[in-house]
């Protein structure tokens, strides 16, 4: 292990940078067999069990910084315990009605990896701790208020602080920087969740709120805990932790609300780029087998034809992404390569409501209304959201100003 000395400002202490590590690619033990069993068992589930997802009544979302506790609870089995990023003493029990907060007794801290409370001296936890360097010497600990942040500890006190390089995050297990995605915006309440595997117990399969077929798994490796991901042939049932046939209500957790702004996902080929399903100006670059979130400059979207960032109007973004991002008008095109007839109403928070133009018209963003199909071909040339769109067969050209 090598270190990079750096002279701390206004101090005679030589501040060491944390070791910058690289993830090695590890396959999940017996992964092929485990996945096969998951799929086959899921096909035998009773329809009554599958329908349980549809009757869960969740209250208001519980948020801790960029960590949506309620969303994560919908993606795990009922009874699963999740860590908190506000206090080492508290944790959440996922009930059918949502997360329920619980606390350890005085002098104890919650160990999310073992799903139980232990004497604080036996638990490596830094959430809400006044002095994270307490009892530490010549090592690094996470700065939980900064994305990828760290403190260097000497004799139980902080001798300085810093941040991991771009496209890396701090791993408390290895006390160093590792490749991975990290939330790009500061939390409003002083806590930042770098990785879902910092609150979800390892060796636990859980689902996703953006896609019903996706499952995740926190795997313990020699370089830290890594979030793996995969897909079922049909759906992933979060209540049973298994792949299953599609059924009414089984995918009610798919709300589009992200589990966290900083979740990392494994990938196969370094250099591959994939668009974000909901944010037009965001994409992922496969770096050392981990998908790293990357953002286009303000006013630019990720273009799925060229795999580069292009100006908002010219870019061909992924279907379903929210084109209210960077919009300067109230109504904008939705991504529609069929007939360009769908559009969004953007509220002041940038949230989108989908609408559709009448037959034989398309939505013209610059005109802020539905226009006759006869002008669609010219419009498509300069508006990537409608790439490939053609006019309908009907001869009606009645304009609309909706």
Q: How would you characterize this protein structure?
A:
With 402 residues, the protein is mostly beta strands. Helices cover 7% and strands 33% of the residues. It is elongated and about 75 Å long.
Structural class: mainly beta
Spatial strand order of the main sheet: 20-23-22-21
Q: Mean of residue pLDDT?
A: 77
So what's the overall shape?
elongated
The portion of residues forming beta strands comes to: 25-35%
How widely separated are the two ends? 64 Å
- Radius of gyration from the alpha-carbon trace, in angstroms: 24 Å
Number of strands: 30
> Considering DSSP H and I runs of 4 or more, what fraction of the residues is helical?
under 10%
Count the helices. How many?
Answer: 4
**Low-pLDDT segments, ≥5 res:** 1-17, 19-58, 183-189, 394-402
Question: Brief overview, please?
Answer:
With 402 residues, the chain is mostly beta strands.
What attributes characterize this protein structure?
402 residues, mainly beta, 4-stranded antiparallel β-sheet, 3-stranded antiparallel β-sheet, disordered C terminus
Topology:
Layout: E1 4-7, E2 14-17, H1 31-42, H2 47-50, E3 63-64, E4 67-68, H3 69-74, E5 81-83, E6 90-95, E7 98-103, E8 108-111, E9 116-119, E10 139-143, E11 149-154, E12 157-163, E13 168-171, E14 176-179, E15 205-206, E16 214-221, E17 224-231, E18 235-237, E19 242-244, E20 265-266, E21 273-275, E22 282-287, E23 290-295, E24 300-303, E25 308-311, E26 331-333, E27 342-346, E28 352-356, E29 361-364, E30 369-372, H4 376-381
Antiparallel strand pairs: 1-2, 3-4, 5-6, 6-7, 8-9, 10-11, 11-12, 13-14, 15-16, 16-17, 18-19, 20-23, 21-22, 22-23, 24-25, 26-27, 27-28, 29-30
């Amino acid at each position: 292990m090598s270190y990079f000395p750096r002279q701390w400002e206004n101090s005679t202490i030589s501040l060491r940078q944390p070791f910058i590590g690289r993830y090695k690619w590890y396959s999940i033990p017996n992964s092929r067999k485990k996945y096969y069993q998951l799929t086959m068992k899921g096909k035998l589930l009773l329809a009554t069990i599958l329908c349980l997802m549809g009757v869960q009544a969740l209250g208001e979302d519980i948020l801790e910084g960029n960590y949506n506790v309620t969303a994560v609870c919908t993606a795990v089995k009922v009874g699963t315990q999740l860590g908190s990023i506000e206090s080492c003493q508290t944790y959440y029990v996922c009930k059918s009605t949502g997360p329920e907060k619980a606390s350890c007794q005085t002098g104890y801290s919650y160990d999310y990896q073992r799903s139980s409370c232990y004497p604080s001296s036996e638990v490596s936890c830094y959430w809400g701790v006044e002095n994270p360097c307490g009892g530490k010497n010549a090592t690094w600990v996470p700065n939980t208020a900064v994305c990828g942040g760290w403190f260097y500890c000497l004799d139980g006190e902080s001798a300085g602080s810093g941040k991991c390089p771009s496209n890396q995050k701090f791993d408390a297990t290895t006390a160093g920087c590792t490749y991975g995605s990290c939330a790009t915006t500061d939390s409003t309440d002083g806590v930042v969740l770098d990785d879902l595997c910092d609150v979800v117990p390892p060796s636990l399969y859980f689902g996703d709120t953006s896609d019903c077929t996706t499952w995740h798994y926190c795997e313990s490796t020699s370089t830290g805990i890594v979030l793996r991901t995969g897909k079922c042939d049909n759906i992933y049932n979060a209540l049973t932790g298994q792949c299953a046939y599609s059924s009414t209500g089984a995918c009610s957790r798919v709300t589009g609300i992200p589990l966290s702004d900083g979740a990392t996902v494994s990938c196969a080929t370094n250099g591959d780029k994939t668009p974000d399903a909901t944010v037009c100006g965001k994409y992922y670059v496969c770096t050392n087998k981990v998908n790293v979130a990357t953002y286009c400059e303000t006013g630019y979207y990720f273009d799925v034809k060229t795999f580069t960032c292009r100006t908002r109007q010219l870019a061909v973004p992924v279907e379903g992404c929210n084109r209210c991002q960077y919009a300067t008008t109230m109504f904008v095109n939705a991504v529609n390569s069929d007939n360009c007839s769908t559009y969004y109403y953007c509220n002041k928070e940038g949230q989108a409501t989908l609408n559709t133009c009448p037959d034989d018209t398309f939505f013209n963003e610059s005109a802020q209304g539905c226009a006759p199909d006869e002008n669609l071909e010219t419009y498509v040339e300069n508006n990537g959201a409608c790439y490939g769109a053609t006019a309908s067969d009907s001869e009606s050209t009645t304009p609309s100003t909706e």
